Amino acid sequence: MVLRIAHHYSINPAFSRLWCALSLALTLVFAGCQTSQMRDLRKMGIMPEDISDRIARDEGSLIGKSGHVPPEPEPASETNSKGLFSRGQEPDSPSATNLPGVGPVPATAKTEKPNGVKSGLLDIPTLAERANHLGRKHDGGYIVATVNGFAILEEELRLAQAQSGAEDALNPNKRRLALNTLIDREVAILDAETKLGKLPQGKKFLEKMQEYGTKEFQRYIRNIKEKNKFETDDEVKAMLRQAGISYALMKRQSERNFISMQYLQQRVMPILDRIGHRDLREYYDTHPEQFRIPDSVNWRHIFLAKVKFNSMEEARKLAKEIVKRIHAGEDFVTLSRKYCHGDSALRDGDGLGHIPGDIRPVEAEPVLLSLKDGEVAPILELSTGLHIIQLAKRQHAGMKPFDESVQKEIRDKLRNESAQLEIKRLLTEMRRNSIIEIMPDS
Fold first, then answer.
1. Strand 150-153 to strand 141-147: parallel, antiparallel, or no bridges (unpaired)?
2. Cα–Cα distance between 190 and 200 in angstroms, integer?
3. Measured distance CA(51)–CA(49) in Å, rounded
4. End-to-end CA distance of the chain
5. Could you say which of 91, 199, 215, 265 has the lowest number of CB atoms within 10 Å?
C-alpha cells in the first residue's frame, strides 16, 4: 500500500500537499492565542476555564486508572513459552478467527468492559473485546501495537507514514517515528477521557472536540474536491481507493489527531500564559546576537547595455532622460521594465544584493552607501554600460529596539519552546502510566 500511496503522490502534487495538512503532528505551534474552536467553547460555557487546575487536583486519584483494562496474559505452554510478543510473530491460522470478539465491532458500541467499566466517548473496541494478539488479523488488518489494550493497526501506521512524506514511506526510522506519534496520540486521548470524563464540562469538551474534528476532516475533503474539480465525495473515495487508502481510516486518523492536539494544547496553555514582560526583557538582554541588524540597503536599478546603442552618447542621453522622469515622479518599476537591459527588470527594478559585500555590480556599493533614502545617484558609467541607481531605504547597523514587534517575536519563541518541553513531559508521564505493547519488528 505504501508504494501505491507514493505513486499517487508523484502524479498528484495537490493531493500530496493536502496530505501534509491532514498530518496533524503532535508537535504543536502555540505562537498565537487559543484556537477559534477553543474560544467558541469558552463563550458557550463548554470549555472548562480551569481544566489544568482540575486535572492537577485529581491527578493523584485518577492517574493510571483509565478504565481501559488490558487483557490478562495467557499462561505459558510448550507451544507458547515466550509470551505475547512471540505469539505476535506466528502466522494467522483458521483458529485465530475463533478468538473472542474477532470481527467488526462498531466503534461507538457501549459494550460492558471488565469490572463493569463502560466504554467511553472516544473508545474503539479494546483487544479484550476483539482479537487480543499482536500480529493477528483485526478487522482485516494486523495489530502492530496496543495502548492500554487499544489496537493500532498496520493500516494506520502506513497511513501515518504516508502523511509524513511518501518518499520516506519505506524508511524504518520513519516507520518507528510514525508509530511513536500514533502511540502518543492514543495515550493523550485516553488521558483526556480519563481526566475529563468525570466532569460534566469535560464530557461536553470531548464531544465538541469530536464534532470539530469531524468538521476539520470535512473541510480537508472539500479542499480535495476543489483542487481536483470533483463534484461528490464518492469521487474522492474512488481516488483514495486507487491510492490504496481507506476513507474511513483517514477520517478516523484525522479526527483523533485533532482531538489529541486540542487536549494537549489545553494542558500546556496555562504555562504559556505565564510568560510575562520580565521574561521577554530578560531574553532580549541575554541574546543580543539575535537582535543585531546588519548594515543593509534596499535599492532600485536600471541598466542600459552599451551594445544596445549606436554610441555611448546615445546611451547617456537616454539615461539622463530616465533620471529626469524619475525626479518628476514616474514609477521606477514601470521605467525599469521598459528600459532596463539587465535582470533588475525581472525583479521589478530591485537592485541585486542588500548587504555590503553582496551588492552587484560592486561599483554600486560605495555609491549606495553615500546616498540618502529616495535619492538618485549620478549615472554610473562602466565599460559594459550605464547604471541608474536609486536608494529606497538604508538600514544602519545596530540593535532592533525592544518594541512591540520584537516582544511578539520573543513571546512566540518562548511559547513554542515551552510548549515543546511541556508536551514532551506530559506525553512521557502518560506513557509511564500506560501499558504499551509493540510488535518487535515495529
1. antiparallel
2. 17
3. 6
4. 17
5. 91
Helices (H), 24-82: 36-44, 51-62
**What are the residue ranges in the chain where pLDDT is below 70?**
1-141, 164-170, 441-442
- Write the secondary structure of 335-363 as one string of H (helix), E (strand) and C (coil): HHHHHCCCHHHHHCCECECCCCCCCECCC
Quickly list H helices, 229-348: 233-242, 247-273, 277-286, 312-327, 332-339
Q: Is beta strand 380-382 parallel, antiparallel or unpaired with respect to 385-395?
A: antiparallel
pLDDT in tens, 11-54: 244 344 444 433 433 333 343 334 555 555 555 544 444 444 54
Under DSSP, is residue 398 helix (H, G, I), strand (E, B) or coil?
A: strand
Distance CA 356, CA 196 (A): 59
What is the H or E stretch that residue 437 is in? Answer: strand 436-438
Cα–Cα separations (whole angstroms), residue 57 to 60, 67, 244, 272, 415: 7, 19, 46, 20, 24
Q: What integer pLDDT is reported at residue 291 of this predicted model?
A: 96
Q: SS3 of 271, please? A: helix
Do you know the residue count of the chain? 442
Rg (CA), the chain: 31
Largest CA distance in the chain: 102
Helix, coil or strand: residue 176: helix
What DSSP designation does 371 have?
A: P
Given CATH 3.10.50.40, say whether it is the number of domain 295-396. Answer: yes
pTM value > 0.70: no
| Angle formed at CA 417 by CA 289 and CA 423, multiple of 5 degrees | 170
Domain ranges of the chain: 2-276+417-438, 295-396
Quote the DSSP letter at residue 328.
Answer: T
Nine-digit cell at 136?
Answer: 493477528
Rounded to whole angstroms, the Cα distance separating 63 from 194 reads 8
Burial class (CB in 10 A: 0-12, 13-18, 19+), 122: buried
Amino acid 96: pLDDT: 32
How far is 96 from 142, CA to CA, in rounded Å?
12
Please name the residues in contact with 317: beta carbons below 8 A apart, sequence gap of 6 or more: none
Count Cβ atoms below 10 Å from residue 401 Cβ, excluding itself: 11
